[in-house]
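To illustrate the input format used throughout this study, we show a single complete record. The first block contains the structure-token representation of the backbone; no residue identities are included at this stage. The design step must infer an amino acid for every position from geometry alone.
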């Protein structure tokens, strides 16, 4: 059977892998749904296409979508890095092995950027559609 240390390692590795798969979808799906829906709904109001709030709103939504897509990649890299640290701690005998946190930090920044861009985009589209952008 497995030693207690090996069992703990496998449990942590399994949890990290499960977290990686789950986290890569939740926030990003929500952000893509909100931004995509706003883009589609706003296209119904193309008569406002020349209004600056609508154009800037679309630009912000596009920036938000790109930030979400980039965060997919950085989130996966952060999870792979966490798994690698676990592997080094267990297999390599490096009990003090740590992540440098680069990918986690990048994911954090991209998540905030997408939140801000999508929120501004939705707000500007609502302003334009409500007639405030004319």
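Output of the design step:
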């Amino acid at each position: 059977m497995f030693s207690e240390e090996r069992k703990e390692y496998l449990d942590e590795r399994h949890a990290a892998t499960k977290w990686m798969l789950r986290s890569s979808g939740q926030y990003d799906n929500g952000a893509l749904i909100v931004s995509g829906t706003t883009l589609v709904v706003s296209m119904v109001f193309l008569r406002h296409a020349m209004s600056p709030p609508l154009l800037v709103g679309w630009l912000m939504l596009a920036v938000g979508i790109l930030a979400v897509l980039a965060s997919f990649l950085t989130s996966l890299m952060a999870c792979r890095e966490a798994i690698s640290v676990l592997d080094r701690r267990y297999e390599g005998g490096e009990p003090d092995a740590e992540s440098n946190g680069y990918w986690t930090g990048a994911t954090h920044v991209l998540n905030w950027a997408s939140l801000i861009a999508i929120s501004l985009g939705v707000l500007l589209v609502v302003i334009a559609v409500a007639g405030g952008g004319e």
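Structural context for interpreting the output: The mean pLDDT is 79. Residues 16 and 83 are 7 Å apart (CA to CA).
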